[in-house]
Amino acid sequence: MSNYSRITRRQFMAGTVVAGAALAVPWYFDSPSAFAFYQSIGLQKFVQPLRGVGPGGIPVAAPDAFSAPVMGVTHYSFTIAQFTDQLHPSLGPTTLWGYNPVVALGGGTQPQRHLGGIIVAQRGVPIQLTFTNTLPPKHILPVDTSVNFSDARKHQNATTTHVHGGFTPWISDGGPFTWFTPDGQYGQSVHSSAGNIYKLLNPGLQPGQGEYYYPNDQSARMSWYHDHALDLTRLNAYAGIASAYIIRDSFEANLRNRGLPDFIEMVGVRSLSLFKTRSSSGPTLPPKIPPGPAQLGWAACGTRTNTSRTAGSWDPTRWVCLPTPRLSPRCSATQCSAMALYIPRRLSRPGAIACASSTRARHGF
């Protein structure tokens, strides 16, 4: 018969006390404590206008005055830096990390803003970008430096840039091991048989810089680009290293002839919203929200006819039409098929103004 070791009650109690004490010890001393649940102060909603883009708002990147080395395409320059921004009138300055274009659309010196560095590209027109990492050594958020995150233990200010969903050559895809730090350290994937992959695109790069080439061989869309460094992606994106990456094409541009509002790089954007409720007295909106499509004469126009959106595809149980501002609020079925933008009926609500991107509406979400 097997012999099993037994422990006394006294030994069990002693072991429990030791284990509890071990769990209570703050093992990682390089970061402040992070609680599983934290309730911030209550903030009043709708007390300030939504931040727009361009001068006075979120900066949009503009090209440099010089072409990209090696490839000869349009070139942009960015810094990745620490800064402060006020995110709500009841809050003081918040410390953030993020992108900042060296040249901003609209000119002049524009302050760095949360989610700044919006990129607007054209389909089939490649661009090249230099990112200069100026982040301080210590992260603004608590960093897990346990054995599961060994790279975070070595450096907390590593970055690399990835366009989410972009068709990008691997040397510019921002893989997790292509990180670089301000002092000139590089991840293992930066080193190739041909040398530093960033310097293949820009031989004159300085320590702390990375170079990326984006072909933009995709249809019109709003994507985003963000940090992608190993062990730090979640923290860096949460800290603010992210912004919009917009690709334009001729199809989308032609929609402006049918009432699509002009592009943000032309006139700026004041607010984006999917739904705005409407009553007999007009739109009901939160205070201080800038004018949007519902206030400019857009109206939902449903039809139960067999008028085709495209040949054989009209299903009145699934689709409602959204006439352009040039049409009256009450549009005919013919107008609906010829001029209007379409949204899925599941996104429409009784008595609602359905405001949606025409590009997404065309493809039915």
Helix-strand layout with pairing:
Blueprint (H helix, E strand, L loop, with lengths): L8 H16 L49 E12 L8 E8 L17 E4 L4 E7 L16 H5 L6 E3 L27 E2 L2 E2 H5 L7 E6 L6 E7 L5 H7 L2 E7 L1 H5 L9 H4 L7 E5 L2 E3 L34 E4 L10 H7 L1 E4 L7 E3 L3 H5 L3
Parallel strand pairs: 1-4, 3-10
Antiparallel strand pairs: 1-2, 4-8, 5-9, 6-7, 9-10, 11-12, 11-15, 13-14
Structure description:
With 365 residues, the chain is of the alpha+beta class. It has 2 domains: 74-256, Immunoglobulin-like; 271-362, no CATH class. The protein has 8 helices and 15 strands. Strand 1 and strand 2 form a beta hairpin. The N and C termini lie far apart (68 Å). 30% of the residues are buried. The model is unreliable at 25-29, 268-316 and 318-365 (pLDDT under 50).
